[in-house]
Amino acid sequence: MARIVMKFGGTSVADLDRIHNVARHVKREVDAGHEVAVVVSAMSGKTNELVGWVQGMPKATGANSPFYDAREYDTIVASGEQVTSGLLAIALQSMGINARSWQGWQIPIKTDNAHGAARILDINGEEIIRRMGEGQVAVVAGFQGLGPDNRVATLGRGGSDTSAVAIAAAVKADRCDIYTDVDGVYTTDPRIEPKARRLKQIAFEEMLEMASLGAKVLQVRSVELAMVHKVRTFVRSSFEDPDAPGMGDLLNPPGTLICDEDEIVEQEVVTGIAYAKDEAQISLRRVADRPGVSAAIFGPLAEAHINVDMIVQNTSEDGSKTDMTFTVPSGDMEKSLKVLDAARDKIGFDVIQHETGLVKVSVIGIGMRSHAGVAASAFHALAEKGINIKAITTSEIKISILIDGPYAELAVRTLHSVYGLDKK
Ligand code: ADP
Ligand code: ASP
Ligand code: MG
What is the pLDDT of residues 261-307, one digit of tens each? Predict the structure, then answer.
């Protein structure tokens, strides 16, 4: 007997038929004698609809924030998961399974106060463990918890993955299965590159990079939690027949296992390619090259909670002036320009230039630590396709390249093939 957390994403619970199909997956594990907690997302498209409603509302008069009240945003967008948790509990009951729904506040899943992007601080798993011991399935609404202000808080888009891994850690589950609309983690987004291959295993560090660099198959925070708490996490498909052979395999279920790198049997140099759309680039031209200038630029941006990513600095021939180029998410572009303009006297630049619609393509693999020449192959391959590189950053296990938006798919496919990742 094992204790399993099963998470089902939006497309897996998109309508009543699919919710019944999910119930069959749960029944399979219950019938095998396992203790089960389930985490559900909202029906696909629901969260977007709810966010759209919030954005369609007028802003409060006199509010000092340019945005709506983030606590009310959470009240509204968390409702999608409440619906699916109840529906799945009913579907399970109709199959003769003892099940009940749980909202984040009922458990409680305690979070910090960052409404809209809250982090889980603590989960009291006791009552769920007790009830699982009595054979009851807990159906937990993902994406939500309870803030220190005693109000509903949501975990950021894609946050149900994080709910699932956090619950798995809290109830000391043997496994956390993330069911989605693909049958595992691929070498790149299979929607962009049909030749992408499914990985049998991927190391935590690599999955963390893939997720941070744009592969939305798992929310970044869920991978961090799985890594820290050593949660055995699988990504697998809810669209396969729940009763097909092997689906209930306890040790080797179909899908991709996220694990420690020592567990990986065949480590390649490059494991995957990720891409992130909607990047914007800002260049400050002819900035005085003196100590403190970077702090003068990036300090105010950080204070405004703007996430600066790639940074490139060039120095003029005589060393007196520098050009500072960096990227921010496109959505933060206007805000960044305002912040920089306000700090103009302190920074002392001549011109500010900006460009949106860029894409960051990244090559990821822990094998890069011990192999030279990985970056050079990427640059060659992109040059051959006539793709211009606007900025580059590297770390031990990844190379990120900034390019013009329209070349995104070509670049992903080119890099995928150059590192031998294409399906044979
Ligand atoms: P869910 O609603 O189940 O949470 P998501 O849409 O958040 O599902 O994530 C699954 C999607 O992630 C897939 O449909 C796929 O297009 C995308 N994806 C991006 N990169 C990858 C990758 N490397 N491997 C698998 N899926 C990926
Ligand atoms: N429903 C939420 C979203 O769409 C959370 C999730 O699906 O993981 O972002
Ligand atoms: Mg998701």
Answer: 999 887 889 999 999 999 999 999 999 888 899 999 999 999 998 99
What residues flank ligand 1, with Cβ below 6 Å? 9-12, 41, 158, 180-182, 185-186, 188-191, 210, 215-217, 272
* Biggest alpha carbon–alpha carbon distance for the chain: 79
Question: Which ligand 2 atom is at minimum distance from the Cα of 10?
Answer: 7
14 CA to centre of ligand 2 in angstroms = 12
386: Cα separation from own chain's centroid: 31
Tell which residue, 238, 194, 195, has the closest CA to residue 7: 238
- Take atom 6 of ligand 2 and give the residue whose Cα is closest: 158
> pTM for the whole thing?
0.93
Is residue 404 in some structural domain? Answer: yes
Helices 204-212 and 220-229: crossing angle, nearest 10°? 160
One domain, residues 226 and 277: no
Q: Is residue 267 assigned to a domain?
A: no
Q: For residues 286 and 343, state if they share a domain.
A: yes
68 pLDDT band (50/70/90 cuts)?
confident
Ligand 1 centroid, distance to 358 Cα (angstroms): 21
Pocket lining: 147 vs ligand 2, CB cutoff 6 Å = no
For 192-212, how does the pLDDT look when each residue is reduced to its tens digit (9 = 90+)?
999 999 999 999 999 999 999
- Tally the domains of the chain: 2
Residue 345 alpha carbon to ligand 1 centre in Å: 45
What ligand 2 atom has the least distance to the C-alpha of 219? 8
DSSP 8-state assignment for residue 391:
E
Q: What is the b/e burial string over 274-299, where b = at least 16 CB atoms within 10 angstroms of the residue's CB?
A: bbbebbbbbbbeebebeeebeebbee
CB 71 less than 6 A from any atom of ligand 2: no
